[in-house]
# Entry
Amino acid sequence: MPRATEKEKPQNHFMEGTNGQARSPSSEPASRGVAFELPADDGHLLGATRYEPDAGARGTLIVHGATAVPQRFYRAFAEFFAERGVRVITYDYRGVGRSRPTSLRGFHATMTEWGKLDARAVHEYVRRHHGDGPLAILGHSFGGQLIGLVDEMEDADCAVLVGAQLGYYGNWPAAARVKFGFAVHVAIPTLTAAFGYLPGRFGLGEDLPRGVAEEWAGWCRHPDYLASTHPDAIGRFAGFDRPTLFYSFTDDSFAPKTAVNGLLGRLSAAPLEHRRRGPHDFDGTPIGHFGFFRRNFSNTLWPESLAYVLDVFGGRTPDRRDCRERPWDVQMSDVLADLRMHGRS
# Structure
């Protein structure tokens, strides 16, 4: 793969306000993120962002996002980690966010390419530029499924999976199964044929390239999900042996318990800590499929997952207590002590 050439510029995104409306960047604190372009093996340029700590990085976290979720959604979470000593790399899959062309009509992309080209390009970038330090991966939903598609996921020293599952529609509860089954058997093929892509207004919020939507729907129609077209995924899942913190949520309609258990059963070799939470654990605050990455959880789930990653980076056994049992106050002095111990300050 050609060496990544960075064309860097500070991030300057519109953000969502507390009333759900867009806020001007001028009302937001300046982001520490630096945007750059990253070439995949086939030459397609991906929009990526690097969040760098102020005092030297304890290690690197790659965020592999969910389907149709632009990387800007993970900005606050990435900055939280970077402010506490962990370099974070986010990126957009081809056809999404800063990696999409002006029009998706006629644009070719598949979920397989999201893994075997896009995710691999990010891992190669980290190996070339930051390979001297430990690496963690965070997989949100589809991002966790990449373990079955991408050999380079084994580069990681640990993983945090959030709302990840195997998306066979038969894993959904009865009422939702009918609706989801109609979507993957009828609605998605019909809409993509009519528009040349899957418009976000019909459910996912963001437009998807036709090939991505159709491959995903095909996987969802099969009990083996992505292994129906990638049988080697079974071996990758079974061989993934990195310490893994796995979050699922009782109010997550995109990842019901049976679908979550389908993926958990595949990760048979990983030293895995599964933490299943619900609104009752957080004074009724909903979590769902996306809430983990919202600031509501910056005093609970964020520092809990950070502590897990820093324990692995520091060669320690991760603390098994969760955010309901442990006072979360990750001190920068502790991070700097780790840096000095490893000669990285």
User: Anything to note?
Assistant: Confidence is low (pLDDT under 50) at residues 1-28, 327-345.
